[in-house]
Input
Amino acid sequence: MLLEIDNLMVEFATGQGPLHAVRGVSFEVREGEVLGVVGESGSGKSVTAHSILRLLPGNGAITGGDVRYQGSSVLAYSPNVLRAFRGPKVSIIFQEPGRSFDPIYTVGRAIEETLRAHNPEMAEDEVRERSVKLLRETHVPYAEQRLHNYPHQFSGGLLQRIMIALALASDPDVLIADEPTTALDVTIQAQIIDLLLELKDKRNLAIIFITHNLALISEIADRILVMYGGLVMEYGSARDVLDRPRHPYTRALLASLLSLGTHYTEQHLQTVHGGTPDPRRPEPGCPFAPRCPLAKMQCREAVPPLVEDGTRHRCIISGEKPEGLYARD
Output
């Protein structure tokens, strides 16, 4: 197994007490696959991803579980080993590329800094050649000339391509794409997705693709992980999760998707009443119970365990869910 996350728990210290962002998340990442991680904002997706690289802010801490890369614990890495892990083994594309670049650095200097961080012995000509190759590989036009441009001189789509080039500079085995299509129009989104899939096949990359867009991830994922309230709600192959969802929350997400070509008078858009749970005061039971139309008393008393039944899901009443629950009209 390439990457294993085992019962990961993450908390943040706040003035109102600990914030329980991730509460026992487990999954695996295999070589050359796309794992889609979906859920509403605040479900713990990005915190989980940043924890893999130990990129938490000062008030954040991993309080339980483990992250293992090819069998070795990332949490036990020394600073030098961790530095060699970030980039060459696992790399990340951050959200909103426009805020991820230093405005006083040209993109060429940003790429050069990334390359030299792991290859300090590289000659200047080699750095330039490698930088141009990375921009060409991510389909940035006029690559040589654009090395001299600053971030504000690029569109959002081109900046995202350059962010992907930076993430690939050290030839990682795993690429974490943290909502890489946020704030991009649908045409550019499609281009970025096609680029990531092209690079996956070319480099045999494993990709962890984080998004709140279930329609988007359904087109590219091999497996899907559904998160809510810092917990895994459902986990399995893309086909099983999309065609035979077992958890009411997964069904709710699927029911909220509009079908292409339908008129608003022909399809009723399902909504989920209520709001997401407060991570400072998590529900004692299933975090989705306050919004679930099938919730029983035992759902509110203790967090249900993950069970195997087509998919791995966290629901004690999965066998009782009628087919019409959150049905799409």
Observations:
- The domain at 3-89+172-320 is CATH 3.40.50.300 (Rossmann fold).
- The longest strand covers residues 17-29.
